[in-house]
Amino acid sequence: MQDALDIIDNIQEQIGGRFIMLDAVNQQKIIDFYKNAGFIPLPPNSPSDESVKMIRPYFDLDGDSLE
Questions:
Q1: Integer Cα distance of 47 and 66 in angstroms
Q2: pTM
Q3: Under a CB-based contact definition with an 8 Å cutoff, are residues 47 and 54 in contact?
Q4: d(CA 16, CA 45)
Q5: Distance between CA atoms of 47 and 57, rounded to whole angstroms?
């Protein structure tokens, strides 16, 4: 996970971006794994969705860098 985040962070520094988004399998163990890596789950469209969209922002809601 850290290798992937390092690559994405490097690209973000070069070209910009506000967040990383991923689709996680809708299983609590997997969601918890991504939460521990700084991702935030977004509300599902439906409780029966097979995946959960998650984001890891680079900026807080005020636009200040989280780094």
A1: 31
A2: 0.79
A3: no
A4: 28
A5: 24
